[in-house]
Here is the input.
Amino acid sequence: IIIGSDGIPEGIITERDLVCVMEKMLEAPDIVNQPAAEFMSPQPHTIQYDQSLFDALAITRAEKIRHLPVVDAQQKLVGLLTQTDLTRAYFHIIELQRNAIEKAIENRTEELRNANRELESLCMEDALLGIGNRRAMEADMAHTHSLALRYQRPYCVALLDVDFFKRYNDHYGHLAGDKALQQVTAVVKQTIRKSDRVYRYGGEEFLLLLPDTTAEGGGILIGRLLEALQQSATPHCKSPYGVLTMSAGLIDLQHDAVEDAPQWEDIVHHADQALYRAKNMGRNRVA
Here is the structure.
């Protein structure tokens, strides 16, 4: 970790950075004498020392990183969490949960049910769709919003809602409805970029998080997504479009005053309002 004179992390040298340096050494051996800061990845993702293990897991999972600097309230470095640390801690939690479940079995069935409900709440993925659930989304949104404010980087949020989904369920049945949601998820995954994240927001609603993206870029991506879903031609005889479609509400931090969106929840609220407008305009569109 590269830190400045004020103790604040300025960058991190990863295994990938070291491999790049070793390749360059073949042509320029004296490169090893250059400052380490020349080879670092700048603006590292960090976590506050008082944040939870779940937050750390959510950040490393979302950002696909293996090292997470820990900082204090003044953003000064106080430690480093590695993938090994997180794995060890998570296995420890699993072991504690296993012991708790065994004890609950020995006691009463009701206690076992409570323990199972607690375990389900710790899950980060939606069981049906295999994407992040609401809990994971909240942790990722909080982290992304904090980074955007700190480094003045844009990001977009889109709320997606399957059009006339209640009619679909009523006509085709709930099993077909589940398969339709899985089809929508597959189309979303095939359309978005590697850096984008999709979460199940609730029911037939999805939240799409687009880091380092303005409203213009987000609008282009969402437009491609809605077109791809319509072209997948999943029949929906109770929709005026005849096939499965979605409506989307898009918002970005860059074009909205920070004072109007001091918290990530405000960004999601604005996206929800935009989704409402898209539905009022006839659905199967982005607003």
